[in-house]
Amino acid sequence: MNANGFGTQVKRGVIEFCVLSMLNRREHYGFELVQELSRIDGLLTSEGTIYPLLSRLRRAGLVSTEWRESTSGPPRKYYRLTPEGEHTLQDYRRQWTLIRDAVNTLVSD
Amino acid sequence: MNASGPEQRISDYLDRVSAQLGDTPEQERSEILSDLDAHIRDAVGGDVLSASEADVLNVLERLGNPSEVAREARGVRGHYQQTPPSSNPYWAEQRKTPGALEVGAIVLTALFWPIGLLLAWVSARWKTRDKAIATVFPLASGLILLALAIAGAVGYSTSGESVSVVSEQPESGSSAPQDPAQTEPRSPAEISEPSDGSGIGSRFLAVVGFLLGVIAGPFIGAVYLAVKLQPRDAPTHSDQSWDNGVPVRT
């Protein structure tokens, strides 16, 4: 599959959607997000790509970061959703529902 | 000391990511690198010194090829930010295919400009400014023609001694049409209708002028459109940066 293939592009969008949803539930640090996403087989094929994504979301104002002391080692950077991020997440949910229903309708007979 | 092995692996990996990040802004680059570094330390249980080289290699392998990580950072700028904020899939399609719409717009503008320009306005491959300029040429020549037609009609109907731009024949009293319905100089067949010798030259000029008026404006408009057609991927809607549908603050 090439870098701009269908699967890759869909996964990128889905990963962003998942990250916003997870951060809406509670704040996470990077490694936690990767661990949770890795439970879905084949979604996050290169775990490292999550960090450019998080950087982009932060620059877009959808997530904010805060350093917290850790009980085991150096301080950790936690990510949380901003109000703008919540807004975007709601929009993604609407779009996802639309796409899911449309695909289900077309794929099922 | 065995510890240099894992640490060396980590710094090698980060160096390769950094090299692949190319022209990524420094702030973004250092953020990604320090996030990756923190991830690696978390993944091996917090203490790299007590981790085996194999553990570190497994973590690095899961992080993925440095070029793939960098592509996520670069790809977003290179690919997604070029996409204009149009949710209409038709416009998106216009960007990918060499458009039949644009070819039709250019050809029809030369042949029958009202339809051609309509197509041009529908297309996303021209800037609004260029569409407006392309519209001016045929419209202007149309207006000039209309003015000539009116002047011609007035010239014919006011006197037999024609002041018309279309025809200047001194002895045309018998053959020049007096009926206003026949004075419309728009039909070349009517204009070039032979009369006595002295009028032929000026009638010929009138026909050429008429044809130039009919053809030149639209033709210039069509050429202008052809020249100003935007490259396939050029954003024509705005220069705002977009990032996978998310506006980017810079």
Tell me briefly what this model is:
Chain A has helices spanning 6-25, 30-38, 50-59, 83-107; strands at 28-29, 63-68, 76-81. With 109 residues, chain A is an alpha+beta fold.
What composes the largest sheet of chain A? 3 strands, antiparallel
As for the number of domains of chain B, it is: 2
Q: Compute the average pLDDT of chain B.
A: 72
* Strand order, sheet with most strands of chain A: 1-3-2
Main sheet of chain B? Answer: 2 strands, antiparallel
Regions with little confidence, pLDDT below 50 for 5+ residues of chain B:
77-94, 171-177, 189-194, 235-250
Low-confidence stretches of chain A: none
DSSP strand count of chain B: 2
Give the CATH level 1 class of chain A: Mainly Alpha
What is the average per-residue confidence, as pLDDT of chain A, rounded to a whole number?
A: 92
The global form of chain B is rod-shaped
Radius of gyration of chain B: 35 Å
SSE topology string of chain A: HEHHEEH
Structural class of chain A: alpha+beta
- The CATH topology of chain A, please? Arc Repressor Mutant, subunit A
Annotation field: number of helices of chain A: 4
Secondary-structure content class of chain B: mainly alpha
Q: What's the CATH architecture of chain A?
A: Orthogonal Bundle
By DSSP, the count of extended strands of chain A is 3
Task: Describe the protein.
The complex is a heterodimer of chains A (109) and B (250). Chain A has helices at residues 6-25, 30-38, 50-59, 83-107; strands at 28-29, 63-68, 76-81. Chain A has a single domain (6-107), classed as Winged helix-like DNA-binding domain superfamily/Winged helix DNA-binding domain (Arc Repressor Mutant, subunit A, Orthogonal Bundle), CATH 1.10.10.10. Chain A is built from 4 helices and 3 strands, in the order H-E-H-H-E-E-H. In chain A, 24% of the residues are buried. Chain A has 109 residues and is α+β, with helices and mostly antiparallel strands. Chain B has a two-stranded antiparallel ribbon. Chain B is an all-alpha fold. Chain B has 2 domains: 4-82, no CATH class; 90-228, no CATH class. The interface between A and B is medium-sized, with 32 and 34 residues.
